[in-house]
Amino acid sequence: MNYGYARISTQSQNLDLQLDALKKSGCERLFVDIASGAKTDRPDLNKMLSEVRPKDVITIWKLDRLGRSLRHLVEIVDKLNEIKVGLVSLNDPIDTTTPHGKLIFNIFASLAEFERDIIRERTKAGLEAARARGRKGGRPKGLSREAEATACAAETLYKEKTLSAQQICKQLSISKATLYSYLRHRNVPIGKAALILHSH
């Protein structure tokens, strides 16, 4: 049996695009939830997961329609793999019914590696931005090559202002003292609040 699963965040979002694509791909049964990405209550998803049997296939529009977070997505796919149910995402290179698709998901599913990739991309972007500003992107004096990359990632994440200092430390596996040391090395102005917080 080919199942299709669609999710929209609000009543006003248009479901037709997802449903038309799922029907076109050959889905025989469709399940739909209206829930925000972070919301845990998804009755239709739970109903579908309780119905699927070995050799069934679930098709989705995009991976972010299925899992509320990367960790949740990995948990669902691990469960599907255990019960021999395939997963196909129409807009991602994911098709766990094929060896290649399964391999891609296994790589993608490694949370730590995925997070490191994000940091690596941001590090690269940080170095390129630094060069564009005419500032040398080399490593600060006294830092190893590995520490240089971490310092640059710390600078990029700190300037993005989307993560707290504590979250940056957790993501980069460094202490707050190291974070502020790296930021000073990169000549990043540190807010008074951060320094006061750090001194306690």
Question: Can you walk through the features of this model?
Answer:
The protein is of the alpha/beta class and 200 residues long. It contains ten helices and five strands, in the order E-H-E-H-E-H-H-E-E-H-H-H-H-H-H. The chain has a five-stranded mixed beta sheet, with helices on both faces. The longest helix is centred in the middle third of the chain and has 22 residues, at 111-132.
The biggest sheet amounts to: 5 strands, mixed
Q: Number of helical runs?
A: 10
Q: Write down the secondary-structure element order.
A: EHEHEHHEEHHHHHH
Kindly state the mean pLDDT as a whole number?
78
Q: List the uncertain runs.
A: 135-139, 195-200
**CA(first)-CA(last) distance:** 60 Å
Strand percentage:
5-15%
